[in-house]
Structure formats: C-alpha cells, structure tokens
What does this fold into?
Amino acid sequence: MTKTPSPFTAAQDAPIVGRNLPRLDATAKVTGRAVYTVDIDRPGMLHAKVLRSPYAHARVLSIDAEAARRLEGVTAVLTRDEIKGLNCYGTYVKDQPIVATDLVRYVGDVVAAVAAIDEHTAFAALDLITVEYEQLEAVFDPEAALDPSAPLIFPAEPFAAFPEYGDGASGNARSAHNVSYEFRYQTGPEDAWDECDHVFEDTFAFSRMNHMHLEPFVTVAEATADEIEVWTSTQSPFPMRKELAYVFGLPENRIRVNVPLLGGAFGAKNGPKTETIAIRLSQLSAGRPVRYCMTTEEVFLTLSQHDAVLTVKSGLKADGEFVARQSRVLLNGGAYADASPLVAEKAGYRMPGAYRWKRIDSVCQAVITNTVPAGAFRGFGATQATWASERQVDLIAERLGLDPFDLRLKNMKDLGEDFVPGETPIDSDLKHGLNLVADAIGYRDRNRSGNRGMGVAIGLKDGGGVNKPAQARVKVTTSGDVFLNCALIEMGQGGHSALCQIVAEVLACDPQRVKFARVDTDSNPFDQGTNASSGIAVMGRAVLQAAERVRSAVLDFAAEHLELERESISLANWQVIDAEGSSYELAPLIMNGFGGTGFEFTGDGFYKARSSRRAPLEAPCIFWEIGWAAAEVAVDPETGKVELLQLVVSGDAGKVVNKLGCRGQDEGAAVFGLAQALFEELRYDNGELLNAEALLYRVPLAEDIPRRFWSITQEQGHGAGPFGAKGMGEGGMLPIAPAIAQAIADATGAQLTSLPMTPQRVYNAIRDAQATKGRG
Amino acid sequence: MTPDAQDSPSVGDEKLTVDLEFDLNGSPERHSVPTSTTVLDLLRNNCGKRGVRGSCERSVCGACTVLIDDVPVAACSTFAFEIDGTRVETVEGLAAKDGTLSAQQQAFRECGGFQCGFCTSGMLMMTTALLRENPEPDREEIREWISSNTCRCTGYEMILESVERAAQLGRTPQANGEPQ
It folds into this structure.
C-alpha cells in the first residue's frame, strides 16, 4: 500500500460522464502533432496518380500505356489488363472495378493509374498513356434515366445482395430501367384515403453537395499477392478488410487495415476510394509501399450526396388531422451504386416524418446516371425526406389557413408512440423540443415587419445503423493504466474521448488514464463501422459492458485476496474501498497475487439490437435521432436575398457524455444544413459538373453564420445508449432547410420547393406568390 | 513529394533549383529545392513540419496557413523561393519548448475550437496573426479574419469563442505558461 493515489479524486462524487472536459485529442490537434493518413511515410514509398475519363459515357476501345511503362521512375502502370481475375467492389452491388474495363460511366471515372518515385513523375507518365474511346449517349437526370429509351448504363447486371426485410418493407433490384435499387414500405389500410377531406400532392427538389472533408481520400498500401497492409482514411476498417478480401481473393487475416485520425468524413469515407488502386500498384511494384492521395478536384469526382426529386401526396381531415401519405422519391445515385440502396431504404422509410398517419405508402428508387457516384452523406436520406415532408406540412398549412407550428403539434407523435409497427417507439418528447426552439427564437410573438419571418421544423432518423454489432475490449495494467481497444474511428466527432469517459466513469478513474488504443484490424475487436450516429449508442454499449466486466473481475480478485465481502467493496482511482471507507492500493495486491511482472485485467463487451421479423428493417432501430430548428430571416423582395437573422438548433443527447462534443455535433450539422438551404451545391449544366474545385465550390464560412446562432442540447434521458445517451452526429442537419424555407414564406409568402434557396429562386417565388395573391 | 506538387507535366525540367535561407520557428534553415517547390512541400517534406496541413491547394481553405514575417499566407500557393530571407512560423512554433501551450492553443483546447483538427493549425496561425495586429478584437473582427479559413466540422461558433478566449488569456499571461 505504498503508491500515492492520483490527484484525481472526484470520481466517486461527481460523474465523469456529462462533464465539460477537454477532448483527449485536444493537445495533439492544437500542437500539430496529430497523425492522419496523409502523414504516413514508409521507407521507399512510391506515389500514385490516376487517369480519369473525360467523357460521361464511352466505350474504352484501346489503352496504350507502353510509353508510360518505359518512363524512368515509373514502377507500375495499372490498366484493365492488370485487374484480370480481381472482383469489382460496392456496398451491396459489386459494380465498381478498380479501373475501367469496357465502359467509363461518368466524367472522372478511373481509366488507369501509375506508381512512380514521385508524384511529378507519375503525372508525367499519365500524359504518355493514350486511350481511344467510342462516345456513347449519356443520361444525367434520374427521371430521364428511367425512360426505356435512355442508354442502359449497366447492360449486364452486376452481382448484388440485399437485406431481407420484415413487415411492410420490400426491396427490389433493377425494378425499372437504370434503377439500382427500389425500396418500398407500406402500412395501414389503403381505404384510409376514403376518410380524407383534402388530398394535396406536391413535388420537391433536393440539391447535391460534396462532403468537402478537408483531408482528402488517401491510402498508403504495402501489398504482395499474399499479404496486404494499408494505412487509410476510412470510417469502416472491418467492412474495408472484408471488401479488400473479396476484391483481391485473400483471406481476411492476410489483410491489415490501420486507421489513423480522419480529417473529416461526413459519410464519404465508407467503402474503397484510394485503397484498391494503391494496393494493386504496390502489388505490381514488387510490394513497395504506394501512397495514393487525391487532390480536392479528384475528391469532387469520387463521391457526392444524392440529389432527389420527391413527390408527396398527403390526405387530411377537414380539421387538419393527417390521415394518409403516399410518396415517391427518386434519388440520383450517379454512375455506381455505392451506398445508394441503403440511402434509398432510409429515404423511403423516413418519409412519414414526425407525424401520425393511418396509412403510409412510400417508394424510393435509386437511379443510375452518368454523374459522380452518390453515397453516404451526413443525414443519409433523412435530409432529403425531411425537406419534402416538412415543406409539404407548411404548404398544407397555408392552404388550410392554419399556423404551420400548430399543424405540426396537432399531428406530432407522442413520446413512446410507435413510428411504424414493429419499430422502436419514439424515444424523445418531440413536442417539447419543438416548443423549446420556438420559444428560444420568439416564434409566437414574432414581428413580421420589414419582410421578416420565422419558421420551425423537425427532422428525425432511425439512428444507430442497421442490425449493427459492435465489440470492444478494455484492459488495465497492474498500475491502473487503462486501454480502450475498439475500432471506433475518430473523424472529428469526439468519439474517442466520449468512449474513454464512459470507461473512466465505470472504473472511477481519471479519464486521462484511459488511452484509446490505435485502430487496426489485426488487434481490434470487430466493429461494423463508424456511421449512422452509432458511436455512443451502439459502440458505447459494448464499451460499457467491457468496462463493467473489467471492474467486476478486479473486484472479484480483490474480494478474494483481501477476504472482504464482494458486495461490500467498490473501485475508485485503482484502489479498493471497503464498507468502512478504508482503501487498499491495487497495484501491490496484484503483484502479490500474480507474481512476476504483474497482470492485466481484460474485459470484452458486445452489443447488438435483437433482430426481429416484425421490424421492417431487419431489427428495430437503436434510437431516434431528432433535430429541431427555428429560424428567422429578413428577405429583400427586390433581390431575393435572404439574410438569416437567427438560427437555433436542438438535439436530444438523451444523456450528455461530453458537453463540448454534443454542442459541436449539433452546430456543425446545422451549418451543413444552412449551406444546403441557401447556397452550397454541385452545379451541373447538361451533365457537366461546373464547380468541382475549391475555388468555385462555395462552403460556409464564419461570415455566413447568423450573428444569433446557438444550439440547445437536451437531455431527455430516454436513449438506449450508456446512461440513457443517444447519438448526435446528424440530427442537427435535418430541420434547417425547411425551417429557413418556412421563415421565407412567413416573411414574403414565397413558397420554395427547390434547394438551394438562391436569390434567383427566392425572387421568382416572391413574384409567383404575388401573382397568385393578385389573382385570388 | 506530397499531393501538392503537381504542376509540371514533364519530368525533365526539375533541374532548376534555388538555394534558400530562412528562419523557421526561431531556428535557421538552409535548403536547395526545385524552383517549382511550394512552401507547403518545403515545410512538410524538407523541414518535417507535418502540422502544416494541405487540403484545397487553391489558397481557399486556409488549412495550410503559416506566418511569413507575421503575415498569414497560404503555404500551398506560395513558392518556396519567395520565403528566402524571411521569418516563417508554423503551428509547431506556438508551444514553448517544454511543451507549455500558447494562449491560442490553450483556448482552442478548452473551448473545443476543433473537431477533426485538420483546419486547426491554420486557424491557430490566423488567430496568432490577428492577436498580434489587435490583441483585443471584437467578435466581428474575429469573424472577418476567421472567414479566411474553412472549418467543415464545428459550425464556427466554438472557434469564434476560442479566439475570444485566446485574446483574454493573452492579456493575462500569468493565467497560462507562455502566451507566445
């Protein structure tokens, strides 16, 4: 009993979870010492560059790369000749080859790649590759692509596997011309429509953004025919390992995926991007390490959000009670399926919004077009669904002469009410949140003079991923130093810190004593990936269990060796406390008990929601992620310019684990929503992407943020995660665009149905509203 | 080489080199580099300053911001030969040699003025330049300066608060180890 206890002594009295602690990665990040994949440097490392298609749709007739192969400093050239026998990749649909084989399907599709002693030489080699193309007719618009006369972008059906759904849900690949996946969900009696006094149908357009994570897609690979090791910027190391095993035909234990810190992801870093190219080039370069780091321009040509056309038909009773909703959503999936099937499922499933319906019939199709592939993006289909769902509530309110806020409250689901049969009941008080943001902004007493107006909106998504398992391991050294070993990826959200706080809470120790072990698939327990706001609610449960098991093992050991009642002792600061409050240092006890150089107590944890055939999507969701927002704008009717005066966003953390983290998630997500609402988009002109580079692509800056912008973190306490916590990563994005749209309508009468709400669109909508008013 | 050097299409013209001497975070540096080398390449690859982050390569995002004779500059779009004879500062020079964080670093740490951290080095250098120019900036001036740089994670409010806090810490040097 010699070691002095650590100066951290508050563990027993004050909880660690919920405190305003600086993040554990703070010092590394403010000193520049944080290590990202871009910083990985291996001895003898080569550099890769890629040749991309200049055509949206073309047949590759021939590739002549002989001159490139002969260039001094070039170690390998990768064309379709070098991928024979390797599989295509893709989340559900295995449709994307490492480099183009017979067809290129969008401007930017990868045709060839080069590894050389430096990037300069690699670029020079690309110039020496000659590709002969036969241009084909291309299609860019999802509605046009559905027409049987449109070019068929995948003449042969790629291998695909889809989920088996439960009650009311169904999925169907290739249901129509150029459709990669169709999801449908139905519930309730069809004759509910007969009860409706009003039926309204409206169509909404949703724009497409780039993720614009500041760290590009980047991989360093060392690979032979038998063994692959990568350092890569991915959100999903284990699914990546599985995909690489499939593509390269290797056992999973011959592939090691190491993941340093990520410089942002926002959904983009799921599935292979730079990985397969770097690996194949390394294999072709006698196993020398190859680094492939994209430029920002290449990132724009690699993945985007889904733009969408959403048609919503809603039936109501005369008093405004919602009865039935039918919706048809077309997602522009771009040239390869990527995550489109899952985004289609989620967009379709989330169309009911926060409201009570007797009948729901929702169809969503992901359509293949000759544009940049679309995939996972913060919000994941819910942003699209919320835009249409919430916007239509506002349009209906105007038509019926009701206040849109009151119409929402009248039809909003209660805490504990089913979302749909078989699904997890709603686990937040939705009305409480809506009142909270409305009151925060002064909605009820608003002053609409000077073309000012306010809007309120709500968005929700089933959070925590689909049928997602997570495993974690906690181990403690003889002296009480703790390792947390799990594959949660730190991409900015603060997940590593929050999970370490959970461990510290259980072991009653200083969070600084908990180290998040480095992420690599050889050493970590399995995880399905850091996505769907699952870090706290799913991985957090596995971590909690692992920590509890360690605590239990330590206390069992101490009770036996100290001859104390097991139930009477507790753990704090690596000391055992008995019923009288006397403390016993654990380190000497462990040394006595185990001898040698000591021992490590280890605990494993696992969590997964139970599967259920009654649940429409394989398993009930882990929690409901909610975003509430209220906005105030001033609109210049002469120019259509919208000034955002106030914006308040709120999420329900259930229980806060890290205060700064929760706030940062809501505010960061809200600013994504703000940008989507007002200006940020990938601009296409007849298939040509006009602004695929940082100079032309407008992302929000500090000057775009309203002078009154704040977040309210609720702790309603109903979450399924540790201590009642829920995930916080995406909810804040969902309600922003509809809240701003309604604020514009409140100010001017202009009802916007397309994003972004540019001055031109707002101006035109004001003119339309005035014309309608004049006629009325 | 890094992803940042990518202009010249042919391999032959790398022969032209330039000799440079400059002060980096208080220490002398001497390098002979190709004329096409950017400051970002030089600092990351020749000087080992991996805290300097490259992203957009168009001097838009500000991730690569460093100070050259006190002026914030986009290292990705500045040629190395332009810094001959200058005083260059990077995020690695902010903390004291014993590791004590500067006021800016302490403030960003305490106020959560970062998430993924990729913009943080640039934000800290921009903050350093601002506080040298005006140790007591108001929120609008901070907003104007910080609008030079992109943060995709935070929504900026916590960065604005971090800069305000840095100014406050800088005015009371006893509250922190070493403000500069």
Q: What stands out?
A: Confidence is low (pLDDT under 50) at residues 1-12 of chain A. Chain A touches chain B through 67 residues (CB under 8 Å).
